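Dissemination and training. As part of the outreach component of the grant, students in the summer workshop were shown how a complex can be specified as a set of sequence lines and then modelled as a single object. The example used during the hands-on session is reproduced here so that future cohorts can follow it. Participants entered these lines:
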Amino acid sequence: MPVITVTLIEGYDAATRRNFAERLTDAARAAIGASLDGITVVINEVPAENYMRGRTGRMPGAPPPSPVSVVRDYLAAMERRDLEAAAAFLADGFTMTFPGGAVFSRPEELVAWARDRYRSVAKTYDGFDEADGAAGSVVYCFGSLHGEWPDGAAFEGIRFVDRFTVADGKITDQRVWNDLAEVRGGRR
Amino acid sequence: MPVITVTLIEGYDAATRRNFAERLTDAARAAIGASLDGITVVINEVPAENYMRGRTGRMPGAPPPSPVSVVRDYLAAMERRDLEAAAAFLADGFTMTFPGGAVFSRPEELVAWARDRYRSVAKTYDGFDEADGAAGSVVYCFGSLHGEWPDGAAFEGIRFVDRFTVADGKITDQRVWNDLAEVRGGRR
Amino acid sequence: MPVITVTLIEGYDAATRRNFAERLTDAARAAIGASLDGITVVINEVPAENYMRGRTGRMPGAPPPSPVSVVRDYLAAMERRDLEAAAAFLADGFTMTFPGGAVFSRPEELVAWARDRYRSVAKTYDGFDEADGAAGSVVYCFGSLHGEWPDGAAFEGIRFVDRFTVADGKITDQRVWNDLAEVRGGRR
Amino acid sequence: MPVITVTLIEGYDAATRRNFAERLTDAARAAIGASLDGITVVINEVPAENYMRGRTGRMPGAPPPSPVSVVRDYLAAMERRDLEAAAAFLADGFTMTFPGGAVFSRPEELVAWARDRYRSVAKTYDGFDEADGAAGSVVYCFGSLHGEWPDGAAFEGIRFVDRFTVADGKITDQRVWNDLAEVRGGRR
Amino acid sequence: MPVITVTLIEGYDAATRRNFAERLTDAARAAIGASLDGITVVINEVPAENYMRGRTGRMPGAPPPSPVSVVRDYLAAMERRDLEAAAAFLADGFTMTFPGGAVFSRPEELVAWARDRYRSVAKTYDGFDEADGAAGSVVYCFGSLHGEWPDGAAFEGIRFVDRFTVADGKITDQRVWNDLAEVRGGRR
Amino acid sequence: MPVITVTLIEGYDAATRRNFAERLTDAARAAIGASLDGITVVINEVPAENYMRGRTGRMPGAPPPSPVSVVRDYLAAMERRDLEAAAAFLADGFTMTFPGGAVFSRPEELVAWARDRYRSVAKTYDGFDEADGAAGSVVYCFGSLHGEWPDGAAFEGIRFVDRFTVADGKITDQRVWNDLAEVRGGRR
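and obtained this result:
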């Protein structure tokens, strides 16, 4: 218990359906604490012509890129400093907030600001978390930074976490926390 | 589209059912990008005697405290320095990781470590995010810290984020990031 | 075959549900020619709190007056010459078309026009038919007229049929055919 | 709301299924006044071997010709004076009733009676309405007549309405009203 | 797997519903070899007014006495030699067949025939089995006989099995096998 | 009434599904006394990838040989004295009980014991009955024996019944009753 039955228009691939079923299972566990063994999910596919809402047939939309994959692709573009590609993932009105409260709206601003913080930086990911809500999804990633200080000395293993708000396939907000200041302070 | 139907044993209160339906709606949006207007959730309750799995009747379990409420209660206990109450929320093997990579397993250790970092601290929350997965839920909270430095000077508006892993109603892991070092560095 | 299952929010009375089930049965017969014996209709009621569309709970609307009852009430008001009550059933833009192609938009116009056609008239109904469509319902009634000619002679048994278009509980169009001219012609 | 799910044996073509879904939608609107946007219809097809009633497998019947198409074909045969073809659409015990109350049971009788009413007549249709009920369907058509009076003069635009009762693919009753007498009276 | 959902008119008591769910579980195991743990049965009760077949409401029938209970009650009546009560469980055309092929249609005949076989006899039951089929149910009971031989000597532990056909709450056929002859042969 | 809907993973052949549906129909009749005409069974097949329990996909198991076919095959092997083949149908701990209470655990023991009871024996079956329960199925077969007495004289028409317990495709228990002693006694 419970049994969750989904009526879906045909056309979503098996991976999308599996992902959907897993999310429904997770929702059941979180909402009612059901034991995993008792959660059954059945996806019942019907051809588009067998589904009508408001006396109108409906077609399955293309499933959107997952919020996590949007964030991954954005971070990869930033890491290779392909600012144009990165900007394509950002919604109008996007802002990014960095340690100390610095706020930017375009990748270029971040790059300029970071210049006297580090010569280069890259991320090693320990995990991604996705929280889905009414207004979109929130994606966190966390792990460690490695790179070079402005003086060329290498650093690694510096803890970080990023929080992204994703709506309709675009990132509307990014917030960053990390231990760079903690470590930098220790260097002095 | 889709239509999600849940067969549930009677006995969950209306708030739990509403929460369940919202989570299922969010899962549908995140998984297949369905437009909100087309996502229908129906919860079909049956008396316990009308449900049988494995030729055995089943009773609805008590819904567990939500992962977010576990975290909130733990944080409240920590803030009022009720370490015994706080410890009751922690699973065996719990660890907490703080800026700079300090790792503790008991609230007392944190309190001792923090002594020369700040005289007091409290949190203002901007939000909680919950990500549900096969192994449990991850809860993030973020916002700003206010309190007093060891020298008695006040601080406020210092950004923080905490990440908690919650399984079976207990916290197994806490990770903390904040801008204390960033701000402290600026004070020097 | 077929089995038709309706998920409905609790709150519709038994007569409304029975009427709904009958209409669904009739739709199945007309659409696929199913034998009556094989058409099963099940109405599955769920409390309002167990139904959510677009992440929003829904309440059952009050079922509207049936199109046939709107027409009956309008005809009764006209027959007792309560023109104000009759007008309350008419939508903006209403027109009524009478034998010979006379078109009116208000009951008063009809009354004036009819004055030298008959002194009084009333209807005996043989039946009402309702055809439901995307844009609303069409109601027909047919039977016979009785009353008095302008010279006071009585008439009866004169065939008539009326066609009404009803949308959102209001009559938008009325068309009338009858044998008054046929009979009147025979009197000369 | 509501969600209407139909379990149907495979074998009905897409047009039949669409027509069925539309009729169910219309039934929901008429019965409970549901807003169109909230009416979902799902047709769930199962192979014939997966359906059993009374421990007996069932096969989908051929969907019957729609009542409207039966009437259209009958009217077309009458208009081209193919009385044999027309008669094939008529059930045993069929009667047709014409203005003034003339009743016939065979097309030939109508043709004979009409001879001194008009030399020829044809219909222009403004619409067809179908009302489905327990005992079969009622089809109305309405529009205008054009043709020639017995003296060879042309007429057109004369209002008419026909009411047909259709059961099991045959017409059991036809009733006709029109303004021929109204107009003829005006000619004298 | 599988999930078996039953739509049932309200009015059957909990024991009947439980028995129904158990039989469905057993049918699933026997038919497809499903592991017990994966067989889910849900009984969905609807008020009588929400169920319509053939455009006609249906009322739940009184569940019949179970075939096993019919047989038990008949056997108890026979054992206490209440032949009138026993006969009330027998359908028209009933026959009973005994070892050696003796066939009777009324309890009295059996009693007369048995007179020189044993002075008295009673049954100890090891079990009842019920096999349900299209034409009704077959009930077997087996165990051991004890009683007195015609010469007054006691016997016990003599194996027997009876097979009953039950349709519409009446026994139509009884067949009896036992080891009386085997044991009697050994006495000689 | 009732309507029984089964959700099944694709992969069972048509005969298995038909057999499943018949068993569900029989269960409904036996449990609630439903009239056959009102029992509808629908099997809804979904691809394996659309079914998940405990967040794990499931595959349809191979349907086991039916209990009746296990018994038939065992009896055929015994009749042709293929004791090795017969033994393959027997579970560990199997016992068989014969008239007079003789108990064996291996086919060879039966063969030895029967040697001075008859020279040969074969069965003509009047029917098989299968009773399904939580612990497995019970199969009965009954009919008549024919063969030769030890002295070579032929016999036929001797009534018998066998009861088999079948679990997981193996026979765990066999009990036999017949009229051999009854008839043999009559020969002396």
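The beta strands of chain E are 3-9, 40-46, 51-53, 56-57, 90-98, 102-104, 120-133, 136-148, 154-167, 170-178. Students were then asked to discuss how this feature might be tested experimentally.
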